[in-house]
Amino acid sequence: MYLGVVISPCYGRVEKISIQNDERIYEWEPLFMIKTDDGHVEMIQTGVSGEIESLEVQEGDDVIPGMVLAYIKEDLYVTGSD
């Protein structure tokens, strides 16, 4: 099993979480919406498919760059095209 990590790219506040623990996710699916300190909304996605192992933040939490948002138990097979 390989655990992938979803991290925050910016300072801001978690506005919306589109996933739940143990939920299956797919590549480039929107996972989090973070409102940055300057008012922009960043959509957080990942390039992996798998199952959410754990959510490390809740809606309303403040985040900083590099902060872990979630851990993903990644699929062992490739889902994209070659």
Rg for CA atoms: 13 Å
Count of alpha and pi helical runs: 0
Poorly predicted runs are: none
Mean pLDDT reading? 91
Please report the distance between the alpha carbons of the first and last residues.
Answer: 23 Å
Which quaternary structure do these chains form? single chain
Query: How many strands in all?
Result: 8
Q: State which percent range the strand residues make up.
A: over 45%
Percent helix: under 10%
Blueprint (SSEs and pairs):
Blueprint: E1 2-7, E2 12-17, E3 24-25, E4 32-36, E5 41-44, E6 50-55, E7 62-63, E8 68-74
Description:
This protein has about 80 residues and is mainly beta. The chain is about 0% helix and about 45% strand. The protein contains no helices and eight strands. Strands 1-8-6-3 form a four-stranded antiparallel beta sheet, with no helix packed on it. Strand 4 and strand 5 form a beta hairpin. It is elongated, with a radius of gyration of 13 Å. The protein starts with a strand and ends in an 8-residue tail after the last strand. The mean pLDDT is about 90.
